[in-house]
Amino acid sequence: MTGIRNLAEDYVLGLLDPQERAEVEARLAAPAGPQDEALAAEVRAVSESWLAVDRTAPELPMPVGAWAALQAACAAAPDVPAVAPPPPEGATVHRLPQAARRWRGIAGLAMAACIGLAALLFSELLTPDPAVMAILLDADGNSVAVIEAFADDTVRVTPLAPVAPDGAQVLQVWTKPDPEGPPVSLGILERAIRSSLAGPDLPRPVADQLFEITIEPEGGSPTGLPTGPVLGVGLAQQTF
Does residue 104 sit in the same domain as residue 171? Predict the structure, then answer.
């Protein structure tokens, strides 16, 4: 039983070579006896044990553009021939049952998705801490958004209210790196959704730096300065 358990763990964790994996999938798709049935049970048990571990991890929002990047990566993958080249004359051919081939295809797609999501998760975990954060308030004192500003001139905007521009309007994010200077645009949002923006080259954000969001025409402010209603405004605080 230990050997079956180890084989099931290697299969679930993706440690088998392609031939070994195909053999396991064939046994799972069409069990030929008690050993194959025991292997299927161990695969289910190992999968469920890892699912329990997955559920202990905190939920993280999908990074902006992650799904589009994953779709692009899948689209760029080389096509797999639908028909394999014919075997040499006299060679012995072992064909997997239809169910086994279908299982292998599903497993391959699942593995690709897991690899892509793992890469995105590590990318999220490796994101540096923001230099400052600001809670933006509306005219009534309600919190409408949180802005995290990073030292590399990027900001992450997390809306706290379901605010969406009317018609062709957009949300535009601003800051004042110089308290005595004009506001500088950090970018626009088409709708109120957690997003990351890459702003212009500015000094490192500091405490008490002003951030605000305004509602502007499609494409952003035509003057380069805030022209629309202020959705929210706030002063940054240093993070620790």
Answer: no
Residues 19 and 118 in one domain: yes
pTM: 0.50
Nearest to 203 by CA among 230, 184, 229: 184
**136 three-class SS:** strand
Higher-confidence position of 237 and 11: 237
Spatial contact of 7 and 36, defined as CB atoms under 8 Å apart:
no
Q: Domain range holding 187?
A: 132-238
Of 157, 212, 155, nearest to 190 by C-alpha is: 157
Whether 122 and 136 share a structural domain: no
Number of domains in the chain: 2
Examine residue 85 and state whether it is found in any structural domain, yes or no. Answer: no
What token pair was written down for 121?
């998760």
Least confident of 64-68, 127-131, 209-213: 64-68
Question: Helices marked H in the chain — which ranges?
Answer: 2-12, 18-29, 34-55, 66-76, 98-125
On the question of pLDDT at 174 being above 60, the answer is: yes
Predicted local confidence at residue 100, as pLDDT: 45
